[in-house]
Design a protein that fits this description.
Layout lengths: L9 E4 L3 E5 L6 E5 L3 H11 L4 E4 L5 H4 L1 H6 E3 H12 L2
Parallel strand pairs: 1-4, 4-5
Antiparallel strand pairs: 2-3
């Protein structure tokens, strides 16, 4: 018997944010923890994943060509890629 196992590397991400201090002592802003340079470096130098899906996609993930090519929204996974994986 021959068995064929196809493994796909998929990452689901809920974007993390951190508080940042602003001039007002009683208010906080937010900073995103997504670093596009790190993502690009890891994708090019290490290994590209078969799918990266963000629940709350950042604006630069839509406007920058490299990020747009490699990062999709979670609904894209459920509507498109999930069905391709099950075939």
């Amino acid at each position: 018997m021959n068995f064929l196992f196809v493994f796909s590397s998929i990452k689901w991400v809920l974007n993390d944010v951190q508080r940042k201090k602003i001039k007002s002592k009683r208010k906080y802003g937010i900073n995103s923890t997504f670093l596009s340079g790190h993502f690009k470096g890891y994708t090019i130098k290490l290994n590209s994943l078969d799918g990266v899906y963000y629940c709350d996609i950042r604006p630069n993930m839509i406007s920058e060509g490299f990020l747009k090519k490699h990062i999709k929204t979670i609904d894209y996974f459920f509507c498109e890629d999930l069905w391709k994986l099950t075939k």
